[in-house]
Amino acid sequence: MSYVDEVLEIVQKKNADQPEFLQAVTEVLDSLRPVIDANEELYRKNAILERITEPDRQIIFRVPWVDDKGQVQVNRAFRVQFNNAIGPYKGGLRLHPSVNLGIIKFLGFEQIFKNALTTLPIGGGKGGCDFDPKGKSDREIMAFCQSFMTELCKYIGADVDVPAGDIGTGAREIGYMFGQFKRIRGSYEGVLTGKGLTYGGSLVRTEATGYGLLYLTEELMKCHGESMQGKTVCVSGAGNVAIYAIQKAHQMGAKVVTCSDSTGWIYDPDGIDVDLLKDIKEVKRARLTEYAAAKPNAQYHEGRGVWQIKCDIALPCATQNELLLEDAKQLVANGCKAVCEGANMPTTLDATKYLQENGVWFVGGKAANAGGVATSALEMSQNSERLSWSFEEVDAKLKNIMVTIYHNIDDAAKRYGAEGDYVAGANIAGFEKVVQAMLAQGVC
Ligand code: NDP
Ligand code: 2IT
Fold first, then answer.
1. Which residue's C-alpha comes closest to atom 46 of ligand 1?
2. What is the Cα–Cα distance from 304 to 421, expressed in whole angstroms?
């Protein structure tokens, strides 16, 4: 049996109850076959695949907090420190009722390769909690965040592990967590990224994932003799990644006609009004029904359906497994040219395969959404030198990183005879860097 198949079997046995983690590992190991085959003896002897699929440590803890009625609530939280071969653990914190260990492990595993692709010195980690921020008062959010950080602060630090935002964790939550870290540990340090601009945050971090996604997509189009100008784009999601993806796509001359949240989706043939969307989602924290109420030409539909709309480019920016095989078939039938993932693993394995086999240029999240964590690493650099860079400076660095990522994954795919397979290219390029560092550091 090949080394890859042997390890896949072990991982499947050990993690049978974690489908998202198995999905992420299967995609990566499958696409690494040519690299593993070329170095099988060395990697086997050093148990590289066994080590890279087993987190350094997994921390699970209780988060008790008091709601507005005086009732004590209890949530379960996680921090998975997956691999720090190339830098301190780095990755977001997800607050969503669906969070469990398998989901945090899949996200942490993806983060290892994504962070390596940024070219910056950051390892892979992820955390989160099954807490649902929806409908909670500011005081309840603060109570939760303070309790969460009271435990988490034992395991993190500017040179150890640096969490950030993800689904359900934005500037408000990062602020409350930073305050509690400072209070308990007595240390003013860059222990979190996505901080507010008055206390160590970086310009462009808010916009970075969405903007980065579009910088990479633009380069992909350019390298295929196309441009963003005049393209119709479908976006899913209506959160941090989706909002700034829509904004940058419009700045590039494309028209984004959809967005969605967990209850429904919008089709706006005039192009999504970003200011209105920002007001509904960032200020009022309301539902997308409000968008349709304010825009007579826009249609609101319950449930899912964004991928039915004809487009040139699809950008899934909501959550994992939101673009299914039937959606992939619809996109291909509608002439979609490119799919770039703003979210982490939004496309199922069979949908990815279908898109690739039908000539759609497909760039997975590890490459396409790396702009967020890359700019987090730039925030860490600014914190270390106790300086703040201008918007233009950070934005130019972000753009350069995303263009470099595109070419690195394109080259890696070509080197292994898989031209145009950007999923394989991203996994190979990320893996090569991490493995070199692991081998150099011995058995650890
Ligand atoms: P937000 O919480 O800001 O927004 C998430 C959006 O997705 C919301 O519109 C939400 O709907 C929708 N959504 C969440 N869960 C589901 C679900 N189960 N079904 C349908 N819709 C859902 O998160 P982000 O924009 O930060 O994150 C979006 C994706 O991007 C995630 O996969 C995240 O891991 C990834 N990512 C984020 C980065 C960042 O810097 N923030 C960096 C790289 C990747 P509703 O409004 O109803 O909650
Ligand atoms: O999935 C991701 O890359 C993030 N949520 C951002 C992580 C970070 O540390 O900025």
1. 261
2. 28
